[in-house]
Amino acid sequence: MARGIDREHRRVVLAAMAGTTIEWYDFFVYAISAGLVFATQYFSALGKDALILSFATVGISFFFRPIGAIVAGHLGDRLGRRAMLIATLLLMGVSTVLIGLVPTTASIGVAAPILLVLLRIVQGLSAGGEWGGAALLAVEHAPADRRGLYGAFPQIGVPVGLLLANGALALAAAVTTPAQFLAWGWRIPFLLSFVLIIAGFVIRSRVAESPVFEEVRRTRGRSSLPLVPLLRHHGTLVVLGALLFAANNAVGYMTTGGYVQSYATKNLHLDRSAVLVAVMISAVAWLVSTLVGGHLADRLGRLTVYRIGFAVQLVWMVPFFALLDTANVGLLVLALVLFSVGLGFTYGPQAALYAEMYPTRVRYSGAALSYAIGAVLGGAFAPTIAEALQSSTGTVYSVCAYLAGMTLIGLVASFFVRDRKGVPLHDVEEKVPARSAESLDGQP
User: Which range is least confidently modeled, 21-25, 79-83, 171-175?
Assistant: First the structure.
């Protein structure tokens, strides 16, 4: 599918993908380590509640994503997409390296978990602002009939980041003893982020600014405070976009948030390295299905592909948990791979859909805020909720019911957004009528 992208546009989409991959590698290394390491190294004083609190630190950062989205969205709509991409990348990378240097509770006491949480909050600020810029840079450079495919490239930064994060932790676990891994081996993937952010900085600094943004800056100027017109005229869209993403994000965070890894190793007693490799294989399947989802979104429409994805999530939900509970690594791989199809179809079209929902002068703010709020509603505490449900009920099928409910919310929300595939991005109306179903898509 990438063969149809010319050289100039290929450089843009690969830059967006590369930076997003590095961002999410950093983010997921923490989330996975929360399930494998942090409960014992930083929260062991809490006894049986240590793992739940460790997962909760994954979720705490999500509350700061909307703040990051507002700040980066404001600056991105005022100054441009490219500058924000570089700033958020550096912010994420530095905080990740510092997490790898935080001493354990045994060394410095209560200051250790406090430092860990503060750095995780910085990661949340960065993640809240990064995605919108990467997605818009790819989509605003794209031909009108290829926005779905182009927008899927920054999306695959998530499964590639998951692949790299699991791979780095699996390698660290393989070359160390269990005791060494808990003592210092887990720090290696965090410290490797230093090399990645240098590479990401070089790649993103060479990308041209979005042509759509440049045209608006030349002809119509920029909004002095993008958040105000966004919420005044497009608030309904922000909520609907958030609900669409929440349904995908809650399901995705079963692996990206570390719940499956933790459950498989601690409850099913599977080998840690084998589980991490299984998740890596599923990340490849997620990558492929995300690209296919973006490609199909250009043919079938954004929302049609979304609905297919949500249907797959619902149908596969019970078999997924049944296969997980067999404690068989091969069946775990099968469960995760098929689970990834629904995830890809509800993630691949997202960048194009969000870009076509908002006017250029508030597009970064709108896309970033929908994404950030959706992450709070969906993924923020999904691993924590899953762990609490499974612990209190004694069965993973309570987690199944929770995820099915989230999926249904996204499916319903998809019927309140109008598909605007191919609409000229610079022609999106600035104001939205107060009434009529059609006003939900931001166009009269």
Answer: 79-83
pLDDT tens digit sequence for 240-267: 999 999 999 999 988 877 789 889 998 9
CA angle (277, 281, 282) in 5-degree steps? 115
Question: Which residue, chain included where needed, has tokens 């393989």?
Answer: 174
Cβ atoms within 10 A of the Cβ of 89, count?
A: 27
CA distance 88 to 70: 13
Q: Which of 238, 243, 239 is nearest to 365 (CA)?
A: 238
The pTM score is 0.82
Distance CA 222, CA 208 (A): 19
Which two tokens mark 5? 């992208």
Length of the chain: 444
Burial class (CB in 10 A: 0-12, 13-18, 19+), 107: exposed
Alpha-carbon gap, residue 369 to 92, rounded angstroms = 18
Percent of the chain having pLDDT more than 70?
91
The pLDDT value given to residue 155: 92
List of residues 6+ apart from 176 with CB closer than 8 A: 184, 185
Helices first, then strands: H and E counts in the chain: 22, 0
Which single residue is written with the structure tokens 């967006």? 16
User: Which DSSP state fits 185?
Assistant: I
Residue 435: which pLDDT band, with cuts at 50, 70 and 90?
very low
Structure tokens at 283: 């990340």
Q: Collect all residues with Cβ–Cβ distance below 8 Å to 441 and sequence separation of at least 6.
A: 237, 357, 417, 418, 420
Q: Which two tokens stand for residue 137?
A: 């840079």
Give the count of beta carbons closer than 10 Å to the beta carbon of residue 175. Answer: 11
Q: Which are the contacts of 331, defined by CB distance < 8 A and separation ≥ 6?
A: 323, 324
Q: Which among 367, 343, 365, 364 is positioned nearest to 353, based on CA atoms?
A: 367
Tokens linked to 187: 């720090």
